[in-house]
């Protein structure tokens, strides 16, 4: 490269970095030189690197003036592959870019190697990665790296160890460095100690767990033949490497672990959950993963069945596959049913429409298994209330399906009847859900005039604006003027709920036959409204309706 070309390159490098690092003003000349050096190192323009390192450069023009190269080389620069907000000294740039020749030149200038330099050298996955790393460590140790002892001695001043070096290489999938580090170990016991190390001397996460959670397939493929059985089934955070790989949905890594002998029956204590349970509880379980685990020996009947989970995304195809393996041969039918219903009541608020299709399909799968047995269980259950409380929060299709399969509509406690639980259940922000559920119960035979505690009837559970619910109850014989507690009506309860009474709602009540002339404790509705809400003047719409009804 000619001197003219070299100068042109320096100018271009400085111009490019001026834009990235400080667009508001030109950089001092010393910084421009350092940016040019970093640029040349990263692009492997080693002729330029040698020329830049050959002498001192004058500042001038109000810049920093003559600057010793030792100080210039220690400053942080920004190379193209680095985040422009946090630069690296030239030696680190050389290590990260795999520029062995520039590394040697910089070491000859007396630059010191840090743990960051070593880490960046390992992240470089070129064919010369280990050679470059060896040069850095030999420079630190002041001698050659011949065995595990000399390697440990070179790493000690950098606050690193053989295990931590191996884990850094594993994280970067630098197979060459991993192979060479293990080759320096004197025996299989030393290799096992490197692989099994954890904590402050290596990595906070065990090796196989780290590889599986980060989906480092090349690392896993290299390490597995060397891993012991104890390492394969190592418990970390109540999970084995197989559980980590399977719950992430990585079929390839799961197969690798199973082929090596990872246990599919290992379970956590005290919960007893095996890998199949973990997969069923994961965010995105797949049928392929479940089939693979069962094929390799996972028992669907071990402990609580895998369909006995609260995973809101469990797919009908997976449930069907597990049911075909005999999951319902256990005495857990009602428990399974309650859990399926709870998916809807607990998780359906966020994505009700898409979720109900999946969960309803699962419910149908469960009930389709021996309908006669389901009918016997549902009719003979000693605690129908718990099932109804969950069903009340679900859709009308759920309720109809359960009743058709034998869930009784009658409850010994009037205050806990199915219709009561449906009308008292939260609407989950879904307009018309309560009315639809009540309509299904009424069509299936529920009594629209059944008496609850203190004489309250279903009509009294109608809230302001619930026209569909009111119409459904009236269509099945409910009395809109039914009273409780010495003459209170549904309008008294609605006045108690707040001062707002929309005009359209009052007109709808009138159209359905509500009597506004009724009095309670010698008070009209407008007087009762004034008393409850401490207002000197009555609500105009309500007062007019009361006045018209009294005049008639």
From TrEMBL:
The keyword Nucleotide-binding is annotated on this UniProt entry: no
InterPro entries for this protein: Ankyrin_rpt, Ankyrin_rpt-contain_sf
ANK repeat coordinates: 86-118, 237-269, 271-305
Superkingdom in the source lineage: Eukaryota
Keywords: ANK repeat, Repeat
Protein name: Ankyrin repeatcontaining protein
């Amino acid at each position: 490269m000619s001197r003219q070309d070299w100068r042109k390159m320096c100018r271009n490098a400085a111009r490019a970095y001026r834009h990235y690092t400080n667009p508001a003003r030109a950089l001092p000349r010393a910084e421009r030189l350092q940016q040019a050096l970093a640029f040349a190192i990263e692009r492997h323009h080693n002729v330029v690197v040698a020329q830049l390192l050959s002498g001192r450069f004058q500042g001038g023009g109000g810049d920093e003036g003559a600057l010793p190269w030792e100080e210039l080389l220690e400053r942080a620069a920004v190379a193209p592959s680095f985040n422009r907000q946090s630069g690296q000294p030239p030696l680190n740039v050389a290590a990260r870019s795999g520029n062995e020749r520039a590394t040697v030149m910089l070491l000859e200038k007396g630059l010191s190697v840090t743990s960051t330099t070593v880490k960046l050298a390992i992240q470089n996955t070129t064919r010369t990665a280990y050679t470059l790393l060896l040069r850095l460590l030999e420079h630190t140790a002041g001698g050659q790296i011949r065995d595990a002892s000399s390697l440990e001695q070179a790493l000690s001043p950098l606050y690193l160890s053989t295990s931590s070096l191996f884990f850094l290489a594993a994280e970067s999938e630098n197979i060459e460095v991993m192979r060479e580090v293990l080759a320096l170990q004197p025996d299989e016991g030393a290799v096992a100690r490197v692989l099994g190390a954890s904590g402050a001397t290596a990595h906070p996460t065990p090796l196989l767990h780290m590889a599986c959670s980060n989906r480092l397939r090349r690392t896993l493929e290299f390490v597995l033949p060397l891993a012991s059985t104890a390492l394969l089934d190592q418990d970390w955070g109540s999970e084995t490497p197989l559980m980590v790989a399977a719950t992430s949905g990585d079929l390839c890594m799961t197969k690798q672990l199973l082929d090596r002998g990872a246990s599919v029956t290992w379970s956590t204590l005290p919960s007893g959950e095996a890998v199949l349970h973990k997969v069923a509880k994961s965010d995105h379980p797949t049928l392929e993963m479940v089939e693979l685990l069962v094929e390799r020996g996972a028992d669907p009947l071990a402990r609580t069945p895998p369909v006995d989970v609260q995973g809101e995304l469990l797919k009908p195809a997976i449930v069907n596959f597990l049911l075909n393996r005999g999951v319902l041969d256990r005495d857990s039918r009602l428990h399974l049913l309650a859990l399926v219903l709870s998916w809807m009541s607990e998780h359906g608020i966020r994505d009700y429409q898409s979720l109900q299709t999946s969960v309803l399909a699962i419910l149908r799968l469960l009930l389709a298994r021996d309908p006669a047995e389901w009918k016997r269980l549902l009719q003979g259950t000693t605690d129908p209330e718990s099932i109804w409380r969950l069903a009340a929060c679900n859709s009308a299709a759920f309720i109809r399906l359960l009743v058709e399969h034998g869930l009784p509509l009658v409850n010994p406690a009037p205050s806990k009847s199915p219709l009561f639980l449906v009308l008292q259940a939260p609407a989950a922000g879904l307009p018309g859900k309560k009315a639809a559920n009540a309509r299904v119960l009424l069509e299936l035979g529920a009594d629209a005039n059944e008496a609850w505690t203190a004489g309250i009837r279903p009509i009294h559970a109608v809230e302001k604006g619930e026209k569909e619910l009111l119409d459904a109850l009236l269509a099945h014989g409910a009395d809109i003027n039914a009273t409780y507690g010495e003459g209170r009506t549904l309008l008294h309860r609605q006045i108690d709920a707040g001062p707002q009474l929309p005009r359209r709602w009052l007109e709808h009540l009138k159209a359905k036959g509500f009597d506004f002339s009724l009095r309670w404790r010698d008070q009209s509705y407008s007087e009762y409204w004034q008393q409850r809400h401490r207002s000197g003047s009555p609500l105009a719409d309500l007062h007019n309706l009361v006045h018209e009804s009294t005049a008639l």
